[in-house]
Amino acid sequence: MNLKIALLGGDGIGPEVLAQAVKCLKAVEETFNHRFTYTEAPVGAVAISNDGKALPKETLQLCKDSDAILFGAIGALEYDNDPEAKVRPEQGLLKLRKELGLFASIRPVKVFPILSKNSVLPKKIVKGTDFVIYRELTGGIYYGKKSLNDDATLASDLCEYSEKEIARIAHLSFKAAKKRRGRLTLVDKANVLETSRLWRKVVTEISDSYPEVHFESIFIDNVVVQMMTNPSQFDVILTENMFGDILTSLGSVIIGSIGLLPSASVGSENAMFSPFHGSYPQAKGKNIANPVASIFSTVLMLQHFGLYEEANAVATAIQKSFKKGITTTDILGSEKYGTDYVGDYIADHIVDSDDDSNINDENIGLGKSTII
């Protein structure tokens, strides 16, 4: 397969972890006889420093012309410490999602047994946790009209959703649940918010088309408690933009490191794959950032294009690094291995399934149903 891939390293550790993901994709190319073409482009703080725009038009066009986008991370301390900044790195990511119509964020949360001790929760609670969050990504309060009065004493943010926006991601999540364990949980606040009541109405109606999927609706405050006390009960979680942002952060607490969570952002024509973590500017250039989430994002990308054997090979190589203890310090506590070494090890152990009898979906844990 030939694929054109846009590389948006972004800020902080973004370029460093993205470089490890590219190493692994090049190993996939060599092992499975594919050809991937990579083109780099600026976004975020780097782009602002170049021409004052968080998302240059050239970068946006490259993304539109590519088969997939691999994204690093975005954000810089100088903007975090400047509340008056008119242009912020995060605006580039929000605009990219909107312009490309990336309406669905898909984030698997899987607890690997060998890493379960890293969770802040007891092992008996996190054991068996394997769910995926479908978060609506281009609507809601993050994109609604915002206002601030002249003396900065009154502010408002509009949360708005249409039936169409809800329905398109609901169908994706139900299809995913059919291929997983057949359970879908809608997270909302329908006892207070009108938008949540619309979400519940639309998704409940759609659930009738998927009788094989057990459907339930739970309030956001209850789900937060349930995720911290019994996360293994969940299979597919569907929710709106802001609630999804919160719940995916909880996912990193459950698995024990934000450096393990990958994500996919998909639309009808475009798809972007990235680690869930931020830019971690304090670690920039120190060779200590965990590249696994970025490498796992290539697993999601390969699945997206139907390259399941290739995706399994990458995921198996990652698990080998866990078993051998070749990880960055945030996972197993060892300072022996840096970002580059971990990336090299994983890339060097990507092999054809004929060469490794241990490859199977159950062992991998990211499953063919992650991306529809």
Automatic annotation (TrEMBL):
It comes from the Bacteria. One of its GO terms (biological process) is L-leucine biosynthetic process. Gene3D superfamilies: Isopropylmalate Dehydrogenase. One of its GO terms (molecular function) is 3-isopropylmalate dehydrogenase activity. Keywords: Amino-acid biosynthesis, Branched-chain amino acid biosynthesis, Leucine biosynthesis, Magnesium, Manganese, Metal-binding, NAD, Oxidoreductase. Its EC number is 1.1.1.85. The keyword Amino-acid biosynthesis applies. Belongs to the isocitrate and isopropylmalate dehydrogenases family. LeuB type 1 subfamily. Its cofactor is Mn(2+); Mg(2+). The gene is leuB. SMART domains: Iso_dh. This is 3-isopropylmalate dehydrogenase. Residues 4-346 form the Isopropylmalate dehydrogenase-like domain. The lineage of its organism: Bacteria, Pseudomonadati, Bacteroidota, Flavobacteriia, Flavobacteriales. It is an enzyme of class 1 (oxidoreductase). GO terms for cellular component: cytosol. Homodimer.
